[in-house]
Fold these 2 entries.
Entry 1:
Amino acid sequence: MLNLAGETRALRRLVSRCRARGSADDVHELRATARRLEVYLRLLKWQVLRADLHRLIRALGPLRDCDVASQATLGLGFEQWLVARRAGELARMRAELGAPRVAALLTALDALPGLHLGTAKQVGRKLEVAAAERRGSGFEALHRSRRAARRARLARAWLGEDVTALKQRQQLMGVACDLSCLSRLLREFGDERSASVCDRGIERLVGCFS
Amino acid sequence: MQLFLIRHAIAEEGADDDARALTKKGRARFDDTIRLLEALDVRFDLVLHSPKLRAVQTAQRLHRLVEGDFEVTPLLVEPPSRALLEACEGDRVALVGHEPSLSALLGWLVTGRPAGGAFELKKGAVACLEGEPRPGKMTLRWLIPPKVARAC
């Protein structure tokens, strides 16, 4: 079962660490902690502070995309392009995390009340139903399904319930989502270089999985 | 635009000012105010609120009236500022905060001078202003103290 005080302390520590260092692990952990707290707010049935947490998660997204894409070794200058892109994104993220509204968000999260177990369980069940009902084709639908599965898993984790099956499902979808992120960055790289460079990158990417 | 200044509802006493929660009486009385706002067809595009728990909980109770976003801001625990006015983006914005800042803001927007003492905002009170969100450019349309909301 997750611990609220532990999570809010972790969020504060990770915001500082991301501003100071901003390693791939720091960014990943900050996003994960912010998402756990966003689900906690859902279990409280609160609408407040959720948009603020979403803004924080979104601010870290471009940096996380660079970190995910850097795990593929494709050559063609893509890796150097990613390093330069990450440096720009890191500066943007530092400015965002240094904004006074982030400090205000941390203050507000420090004072969150405890869960009412009955209400939280009801919300948790609804999140599971929503995750199970998510259907559709294409990467956008897949991203939505993955997000729904993650919310359902995090709700279970707050309630101290078993998360194994939901975790496996979410991880499977994660592989496909990471690939879609990589192909999007490759296209942007190709736009800046040439389409043929992008095509060769995608060929190599496909080669990795065949 | 319409700007709604809302003082947080009655909260418990406590050493940690950031963590003072609304009392049962505070919640019940503010719900009377919400019912009246609903009857007046008041809706918000944006609710800016202070990070203190009593303001966060007051903002949360408004959720039925919100057709846009909530946003936490440190500007509502400081004296009124132009930065706060610039953050008021939308046609129907609510600010959930504290005294003496809110009544000073009300005075500033209506008279152009920080005239906090001229207006009284009880806990859970709502003031509706119309006009441009600039000092001296807004008109006070109405102000509902919680006692009036309870009587309606």
Entry 2:
Amino acid sequence: MSTVTAQTPVPTEPASSGPLLRVAGLHKTYRLGRVDVPVLHGVDIELGRGEWVAILGASGSGKSTLLHLIGGLDRPDKPSGGRPGATIRFESQDVVAFSHAELNRYRCRDVGFVFQFYHLLPELTVTDNVLLGAMIRLGRFGYMSERAALHETAARLLDAFGLKNRLRHKPAQLSGGERQRVAIARALINDPSLLLADEPTGNLDRKTGAAILDVLAEIRRERGQTMLMVTHDPEIAARADRIVELVDGRVAAQKD
Amino acid sequence: MYSPPVYQALLTRRYLTSKVMPLLASLAVVLCTAMVLITWSVMGGFLLNLTQAGRSLIGDVRIAWPNVGFPHYEDLIQRLEEHPEVEAASPIIETFGMITLLENRTEGILIRGIDGESFARVTNYADTLWWKPLDEPMQKDKAGDDVRLEPGDRDLLRRVYDDGLSLTEIDPDTGVRESALVLGIEVGGWNVRTDWGGYYPRVQFITGSDGSSEMQNLFMPAGGELTVLVVPLDSRGRPMEAVTSRLPVANEFESGLYDVDRQTVLMDLKALQRMLRMHPAKRVVRSDRDEADPLGGFFEEDDTANAAPEPEIVEDPGRVTAVLVKQADPDGDVEAFRERCRAIYAEFAADHPDVPGAGSIGVETWEDANRMMIGAVKKETGLVLIIFTFISFTAVFLVFAIFWAMISEKTKDIGVLRALGASRMGVAWVWLRYGLAIGVVGSLFGGLLAWAIVTNINEIHEGIALSGDWLGRNLTGTPWNWYIWDPKVYVFKEIPHSIEPWKAAFVLIGGLVSCLLGALLPAARAARMHPVQALRFE
């Protein structure tokens, strides 16, 4: 597999000292009908630059919710009953205080999502799926002016993931592993600081899942990509630098 | 500078070309747009033909003082025709009367006394005369059945046509040219309307006292005379003794308006003036009474037998009830032209104290004169349009339903877009653009379909009719009448149509707006979706 690079050079040194992400006192409660269902009970977590952290937990432990909150897809509970509000600091920014527009920008530029079920858009080709994030980030004029460079970047990413001959294929024409590699390429097109992967091998057989983990490891090695991966499988979690175990919405253990 | 993201255009294009449902929505818009545009064009064309037919009967402006009429009209016509905006002017008398037709059938009619030569310059009178020689069959007369095509009748028809123009006919007994009638083609009831909208004279068999049967051609009827009855009014508008006159028929006219063709008879202006006592005459004014003798005082210029002894004789000019005026520019503003005619009349009235004042005289445009008819058709057009527009709103609901279903189907895609950083408005615009695209495609193709149908509507109609004819003959042995616009029933032989650019633009924009309306709520729903719920949607 060739070297994984996005459109900008990978920084070899951290831009600034300190963790990339710091989460503290994260609470999240969902309302189901008239019943409040607490999912997260004050989660604290830190993520260093270039670190690969796995969130390990059983189904319903709140690991996907944690990922969504960190990725700006949802907002944590507001302070109540003397309980202070949650903190999600990304670089020097307070994600919790972001406006809607800032959250959109954060999701677009700073984080990249990889989902268990790939979530590729079936009407688009592999290349268009990968370029979708860039299309959202740039306006029409911006995209058109960078179009050639972006297509080259997408082609290089896909080539690195062994999809050189699949550029014009539709997702339905790909295997599960290929689809997930396309989804990873899509997540990387805007060169995000943080890659969030929600059970990236959960829908794949063991061999294909292992290949996907190899891809993630390659990305981390080549790009120094910071990654937060959610899984329920201790064996998969073991591939990460550090494992944070989540039980019933609380951090139960952390181990390197 | 903000520029819309390219992903919206990409998704719109992909959704539009990869799904059947939006194509069905586009098809619905195509059909609705075409339906409204065709209806409007045909109804608009019908209205246009109707109003043009109405215009052809009275010119552009009518200056009228009904019943008793007004004198010195020759001076008014001269003043009008001296004006560069006036093409021509013609005197006319309109009065109600009775006509006794064949077998003593008597009917109430509108009698118009016209001066054939000037009337033909103001109106398209010459074109409306029905009996004239034809070189080629009319468009709908595919079989060439028109009796006017008969080579052997060309001389007769030429003579009849000239008689119609002059409203006279030569008396076969005396050889003298005398006044004659020109009837609306439906007045006499002796013409049969053909399938293609023409006429031929009815033929009837008359049984004699000896039991023999004789065929009689009822052409106009040849050699026959009809009795016309009018009631003259004195100068104060009081009815005088009814006057009858027996007159031959010189020709018949077809105006295109059934009511006119059914109830109008034309005759020579001077003949009608005499019947109505509106002709130029001398009046006896007695020294002890400063007024005319209303009943016995009229006499012809050469009628010296009735002259009173030691008379004071006053010249009474001829009168007409209206002067018709045609403007030089056929596309000119008819309202402004009416005001010009009113001003000319005011100058005329200032020089003639015995004519109605400029404030009293009726000066109306052809639209004013036909407002009842035009108004009715306009209302009918409006009503049909409203009905079809409501029907077309099904397109809005169809787009709404399809989009609602598609957004449910695409919930995960919406979640992905939000996860990749798309804003709520960005997601909403994907669907609004999609609705707009369906509207553009549907409206454009609908407009093209309407244009293709409207410009070929008579050929399509003919094709349908011929298909019915062929199918009927082959399946049942008799042709099926699939004529929707039957020339036998409708006055206009062709289906009228007129696509006006502003109407087309209005309908096409309406199609676009309808699609946008249909997409509005689903787009709002997509925008309000919570990204996490959208991603977890099963």
